[in-house]
Amino acid sequence: MTRTYLSKSFKTLSILAFLFIGQSCKDLLDEKVISSIGDDYMTTAAGFNSASNAAYSSLRNFYGTERGLSMTEYGTDLYSAGADGSFKGFHFYDSQLIGTVSIIQEVWEELYKGINTCNAVIERAAGVAGVTDAVKTQRVAEMKFLRAHYYFILFQEFGGVDLRLTETILPTKTTKRASDAEMYAAIIKDLEESLPGLENKAKSADYGRATKAAAEHLLAKVYLAKATSSVKAADDYSKAATYAQNVISNYGFKLLPDFASVFVQGAGEINDEVVFAVQYTTDPLTNISDPTTNGNGNNLHLLFGMQYDVQAGMVRDVFYGRPFKRLKPTTYALETVFKDRVNDSRYKKTFRDTWLSNNPGTFTNVFDNSKKSVTYKAGDTTIFIPGVEWTLAQRAAKPYQVLVPSLYNLSLFPTLVKFMDPLRIDKTYEPGSRDYLAFRLADTYLMLAEAQIKLGKTADAAASINMVRRRAAFAGKESAMEITAADATMEFLMEERGRELLGEQTRWLDLKRWGVLVDRVKKYNSDAANNIKETHNLRPIPQTQIDRSDKGTDGASVFPQNPGY
Prior knowledge:
This protein is α+β, with helices and mostly antiparallel strands.
């Protein structure tokens, strides 16, 4: 199996290097660097292939990064702020959330690099020598998928942006903000035009390339968003349902039998449930999209961990990870969304509940006030999180510390394990190498159910949701997990998506799409309840974009800031 790892962004103004990387499933890199090349290099077969590959690299700026996570999971009904302080404006919706925040500018600029690379490949494909028409057709289709993907991210986060569908070769200050109608029209057109040219299979032979299934999954999500927008149409939900059903029915995807196995690092990441993955590597040179904005690979392993490494019997190690304490699950997430721990395996398989001693000895600095000291041998349980309150006597009877909900704080809380990366080279190493699963089949089923609920087909929606819930059940509990048509409500779907997709860069976007971001954050997230308002359904436009745009007759930028910022 060959995996195409697409590294540094192709830049039409200054093409510095292209990395040609063929990677086997054993992560063996064979790279060739070409530098000091002219703009006409792209009309060669090698240059055309390099540019097509490089267009994918901007995905690494958003998926599997603190940057993308801050803009999708911070400040929701499911996650509040942990102890560490980076980018807390996204949690609190306060004066820290402004257009000069570095990650806002980085996402904007990197996605536009990706868009311009796509534009260049699309426009120049016809003139490329030494490449078959079939390959050109496929690469152009991939570029349209990526261009739509990048614009959809920008549109969801910022509203209408500068819609550039042709290659920008020279610097320009001429910009304008597209309308919602223009944005949806361009995104849908690109995706629908991509379908005939993309590989009609679950996974590309050149693993990592976009397929028809990936485009249909994204179309389902786009139509769900459009259905609640200012330009909604009567058939948006039916189109979303059709595209989601196509993904489920036409390519052989299957939900894995075990929820936890979806997130197994290494070969497990290429599995029957993955519709589209953003690829990372163990090589520091090729694990980035741009050295100035993304040098940390897939670094989500850093961001969900509690501060286990200063607790009795523990020191930091590679297995338990380097905890940055950025996100703490809300009480609503733990006690309502993950309330069922008897039938549903997802609480147990989503959060770590046990730590084993890697620092034996006797310790008196314990957080568990049921005991004055603890003594551990190597491999003894040091910390256990039962997920429910225990009495002082129950905790005192255990030889380890018991972290109950009343003891949770900004540094100690249940730790998400989906993105842990024990294959890092040492305990302080930040870059991660695991692929990021951007689209997976469980999400497709839940999108289908959402469309079916909105269409009044609640029995069908229950059947779609039950596919996901049966897989999530503990053995022998499958029937107890099934719901009926009467249960198939939007409120239930919101919680089901939380159980299934916690931390997977969907929640802020989901809440915005449903029109409930402000309401649910006010109800369930005390960090942000006092500050959040309708303004926050959009992010601030990067100040660099405003400053670099033309000025009108009144001296103001022709590219205005979003209201309220």
